[in-house]
Amino acid sequence: MEELQRALEDRSLTVSNVPEKGRCLFTTRDFSPGEVIISQEPYVSVPNNSSAESRCDACFESSNLKKCSACQVVYYCSNSCQKSEWKLHRLECEALSKLHKERRMAVTPSIRLMIKLYLRTKLQTERVIPASAMDNYKLVEALVAHMSEIDEKQLVLYAQMANLVSLILQWPGINIKEIAENFSKLACNAHTICDSELRPLGTGLYPVISIVNHSCLPNSVLLFEGRSAVVHAVQHIPKGAEVLISYIETAGSTLTRQKALKEQYLFTCTCPRCSKVGKYNDIQESAVLEGYRCKDNGCIGFLLRESDGNGFICQQCGLVRSKEEIKQIASELKSLSDKAPISTPSHNYQESVSVYRAIETLQRKLYHPFSISLMQTREKLLKILMELEDWSEALAYCRLTIPVYQRVYPGCHPLLGLQYYTCGKLEWLLGDTENAVKSLIKAVDILQITHGTSTPFMKDLFVRLEEARAEASYKFSSEE
Ligand SMILES: C[S@@+](CC[C@H](N)C(=O)[O-])C[C@H]1O[C@@H](n2cnc3c(N)ncnc32)[C@H](O)[C@@H]1O
């Protein structure tokens, strides 16, 4: 702990224990918006390899992959990536190769992550790979596991997974209970590694970044540059403040967010947003984000259940929607949603578009215009239409999502920045350079804070903005 405190001191940070939260990371100087607060390489990481997509174990790249010829499980995109992982993979490869082929192919990313955790610890203990203040097994030991709060079913699952890890490693005297506890640690401490556009690529354990606690109104954001986790301040953070990121999708109502936090991280959030639970403004916000729309299409009031329980009354105009009408649309929506594909293979894009269009129409009838479900359906349509290169309809849906994004991701949120970026790209493709410039400027304003300015993604964004600006001014001068 002392060694870690010294390493953090150099970064103007310190760790303290707070009774209701456990360890917390505090600043010892002011941080400006966009500044990197802390970054860390993973102690261990694995890509989310599936039959549909594989990635390099070292850099998560998905092209030019070659399978490890011995274990046939792990992929690398180059010799240098394979070399960088070799000390660890040599041991993993030996262990995996002893399994029957079918069993080996069924080893999940979570099992691999645990195997790598044990192998890395072994190699550090034997000093085959170096350890440091921010990179050692003691930091993993210090992570919270919440063992006493986990339900029976989950414990049984962790015990089964621990047995499989033991079977693969075949280490005499290995402690199954400790492996099960480590699975519980991974559940509330590991992070999903995403690319710059927040698409999930894999999972990593970053034991120092794991000290950062959650807020639904965070002052920082955790993003990834390759496999490195980087925490950026998204607002001015004064000296002595706690560094806070969001662990979950913050768009939901307070009850939805609290449920997600309780289920995965086993705590009740008391952040400034959550402390409003049950107050009028919070009830209003939940009814807007997750409730029904007014019967009058021109009214954007929110609906609350009538005291007799027979319907929902608009809090703006007083019109009532009957329970039966709502039930009817909800049931149509359910049967349509059951038909919607979870993932869309390319040959099914057209079919998916029609299903999601029908869902969107029904959701518009049922939900408030700022509904999160409606926003998510439009987001799906936007993605599929982009795959179909139908830029114009994709842009229409993208524009419809923007006001909801602005409401649910206020301030400097990467998802809002990325949505402006998509809008700008589509406007540019459709020749609407003037609006493209406006959207890309909004994207840059947010993303240079959340993502920094030096990543390939941001450099590409700056180039796109310059190109759009040049084209807009050329168009303007030729029109003159
Ligand atoms: C990734 S760890 C964060 C570091 C942790 N506080 C520690 O002592 O190691 C996640 C756990 O921290 C606690 N935690 C995180 N944010 C919290 C918050 N806002 N309020 C209360 N507990 C929180 C919960 O126990 C959660 O499962």
What share of residues are in beta strands? 5-15%
In terms of quaternary structure, what is this? single chain
- Specify the number of helices: 16
Q: Mind telling me the C-alpha Rg?
A: 25 Å
Q: Given the helix and strand composition, which structural class is it?
A: alpha+beta
In which order are the strands of the major sheet placed? 3-11-10
Largest sheet: 3 strands, antiparallel
According to DSSP, the number of beta strands is: 15
Low confidence ranges: none
Bound small molecules, by name, code or SMILES, are:
S-adenosylmethionine
Q: What number of structural domains do the residues give?
A: 3
Mean pLDDT reading: 96
What gross morphology would you assign?
globular
First-last Cα distance: 67 Å
Structure commentary:
A hairpin with a 5-residue loop joins strand 7 (191-194) and strand 8. The protein folds into three domains: 42-191, no CATH class; 291-404, Tetratricopeptide repeat domain (Serine Threonine Protein Phosphatase 5, Tetratricopeptide repeat, Alpha Horseshoe); 409-480, Tetratricopeptide repeat domain (Serine Threonine Protein Phosphatase 5, Tetratricopeptide repeat, Alpha Horseshoe), CATH 1.25.40.10. It is an alpha+beta fold. It is globular and about 70 Å long. It has a three-stranded antiparallel beta sheet with strand order 3-11-10, with no helix packed on it. It starts with a helix and ends with a helix. It is built from 16 helices and 15 strands. Bound molecules: S-adenosylmethionine (SAM). S-adenosylmethionine is lined by residues 20-23, 143-144, 188-189, 210-211, 213-215, 265-267, 269, 271.
